């Protein structure tokens, strides 16, 4: 069978090639009846539409926005909050007629998604500033918005007030009367475990900001926390870090955790040591993800609005795309979204300590 083209359909319908093209690319230029007639003939002939690459070249746009991830999809989708953020970004992009393309680290030397995939712009999500993939996006001069990243001059950013949220969480424990407080946070994995000085080991801007917020409140109260630094994956790492803290001779009466996932691991460790939350140890999470209300007792945590963060990132990016390549860096948006302490059942005033059960 001969290849079906725009001309083939135009000749069958008795219209111009431009009319057929408009039926696919600019439907507002045709009456409903004419468009339906053209599409019916195209369907009859087995024509699926203009070549996407050719359309992108002609329009100077792909209709796709990339979200750069530092981990594989398996790891990203195991994170409840990250999954919610990606879903919210996809919904916000759809409102602008844009599709979401996930850019993961390359598995082969041949194809590098951040370098080779056609995009109109990109959202950089929780990546290290020295990431090779971030470097490729910058070299391509693509419009980009950085989420949960260190703000830089001229860059567009969508962040949350991690510092303020963490400070509020620590102050909540202090107000309850806790003074033996520990921190379970995320780190590089190069030097993990219970450490005296966690600074310089964090790998994300969010982790650094949360650590600074916790320390600000605790230092003002004269409290020196014990800190466990663990990698985000595997889940067992957070459990091991929490267990180390809870088996200390001078066991903390409260834990401040990097995320709700870390807090859930801490609660599991407490239960397996025969400790009750919050009677023996209070636990505070971060994010207010679905995990926070799934665990028992329900989790006191810091809420960040995942939908608002996604909308802010997409708005900043579509504004850059619409402005074109000559946009002034001074017009780049930097959004700082508020956080909110959500008090639930996992925190209470400290009680007289009970000895943890030491299981092998």
Please, could you describe this protein's structure?
There is one protein chain. This protein is of the alpha/beta class and 360 residues long. Helix content is 42%, strand content 16%. The strands form 3 sheets. It has a 6-stranded parallel sheet, sandwiched between helices. Helix 6 (80-94) crosses helix 14 and helix 11 crosses helix 12 (260-272). It is elongated and about 90 Å long.
List the helices and strands and how they pair.
Elements: H1 6-13, H2 17-25, H3 32-45, H4 52-59, E1 64-68, H5 73-78, H6 80-94, E2 99-103, H7 113-116, E3 121-125, H8 132-139, E4 144-147, E5 156-160, H9 162-176, E6 181-186, E7 193-195, H10 205-220, E8 226-230, H11 235-246, E9 254-257, H12 260-272, E10 282-284, H13 290-294, E11 301-304, H14 306-323, E12 334-337, E13 339-342
Parallel strand pairs: 1-2, 1-3, 3-4, 4-5, 5-12, 6-8, 6-9, 9-10
Antiparallel strand pairs: 7-8, 11-13
Helix pairs in contact: 1-2, 1-3, 2-3, 6-14, 9-10, 11-12
């Amino acid at each position: 069978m001969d290849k079906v083209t725009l001309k083939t359909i135009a000749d069958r319908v008795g219209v111009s090639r431009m009319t057929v093209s408009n039926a696919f690319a600019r439907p507002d230029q045709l009456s409903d009846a004419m468009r339906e007639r053209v599409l019916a003939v195209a369907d009859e002939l087995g024509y699926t539409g203009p070549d996407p690459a050719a359309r992108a070249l002609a329009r100077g746009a792909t209709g796709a926005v990339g979200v750069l991830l530092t981990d594989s999809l398996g790891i990203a989708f195991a994170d409840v909050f990250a999954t919610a953020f990606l879903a919210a970004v996809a919904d916000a992009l759809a409102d602008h007629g844009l599709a979401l393309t996930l850019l993961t680290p390359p598995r082969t030397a041949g194809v590098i998604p951040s370098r080779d995939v056609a995009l109109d712009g990109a959202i950089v999500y929780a990546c290290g500033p020295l990431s090779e993939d971030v470097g490729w996006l910058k070299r391509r001069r693509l419009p980009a918005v950085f989420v949960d990243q260190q703000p830089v001059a001229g860059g567009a950013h969508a962040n949350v007030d991690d510092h303020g949220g963490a400070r509020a969480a620590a102050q909540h424990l202090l107000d309850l009367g806790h003074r033996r407080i520990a921190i379970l946070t995320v780190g590089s994995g190069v030097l993990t475990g219970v450490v005296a000085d966690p600074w310089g080991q964090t790998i994300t801007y969010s982790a650094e900001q949360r650590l600074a917020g916790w320390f600000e409140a605790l230092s003002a109260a004269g409290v020196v926390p014990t800190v466990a630094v663990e990698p985000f994956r595997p889940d067992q790492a957070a459990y091991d870090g929490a267990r180390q803290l809870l088996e200390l001779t001078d066991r903390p009466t409260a834990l401040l955790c990097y995320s709700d996932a870390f807090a859930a691991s801490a609660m599991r460790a407490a239960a397996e040591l025969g400790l009750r939350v919050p009677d023996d140890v209070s636990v505070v999470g971060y994010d207010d993800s679905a995990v926070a209300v799934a665990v028992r007792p329900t989790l006191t945590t810091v809420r960040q609005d995942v939908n608002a963060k996604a909308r802010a990132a997409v708005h900043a990016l579509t504004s850059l795309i619409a402005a074109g390549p000559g946009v002034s860096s001074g017009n780049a948006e930097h959004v700082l979204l508020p956080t909110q302490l959500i008090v639930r059942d996992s925190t209470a005033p400290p009680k007289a300590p009970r000895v943890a059960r030491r299981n092998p």
